[in-house]
Amino acid sequence: MRLCMWMLLLPVLAAAADDKIARGAEVYRTSCGVTYCHGPEGRAGRAPGLAGRSFAPGDIVRTATTGIPNTSMPGFAALLKSEDIQAVAAYIVSLNGGGPAAVSRPAADVPADAQKGRALFFDAARTGACGACHEVGARGVLVSAGLQDLAAARLQDFRQVPTPAVVTARPSGEPAFPAVVAEKAADRIRVYDLSSRLPVLRTFAPAEVVLTPGSSWTHTAAASLYTDAELEAISRYLRWSAGR
Ligand code: HEC
Fold it and tell me: What is the layout of strands, in order, in the sheet containing 177-184?
């Protein structure tokens, strides 16, 4: 059970052979896909879902080697043969529709002038692409609002968007960090930690963390990964997807 999270985050090889994917599916099924962790077929268990996400290889390697502190994601370096880790990575990529190459391939239903923005939105080569936090058309990660039905005014300047949902989390004995609350239950609080470019889902007992409104986090950091021309292309894609 403890193996589950790490394997998923391992090096993403876009050109994976089918037998490797089959082997990866088997390793995933036995080590990663238990419902407690990443869920069958990459859907979310208690840990973040992995299908439809764009992982940058460098982050994946780092995460897989060391695990994520204060989360239930262990490091797998000492636990799995590297070929099995590679196989699982190939499998995860296949769940994501073939990885970077597939996202940059035109999608049949997306008009030509929105294709470029779509590829940029889900750009797997960019750590912290829009799709790392937002969902459009059931693809991407829902840290923040899905961007499907936004008013046109919100689709203009991605550097200036208001972020009322971002709070400050202060875990006892640890530095504070900007967070988006994913779940508040009687026995646990789950938040996305926005202090790294790829948001990390962390779980606390209610007594272990204090959440206060407001944060110094701004959306500028996320948007500054792109040039003005690229943001304009993304805006065209989002407007198309919102029917505007
Ligand atoms: C690191 C996570 C992250 C990344 C990456 C990111 N965003 Fe956001 N985005 C947020 C958060 C958090 C909010 C604020 C949500 C809130 O407070 O309601 C937000 C809000 C928005 C909003 C306003 C939504 C609304 O309902 O008003 C838009 C539009 C948006 N983002 C577009 C983008 C685009 C386009 C990109 C890529 C250029 C991007 N975001 C990248 C986290 C992210």
Answer: 200-204, 189-193, 177-184, 166-171, 209-213
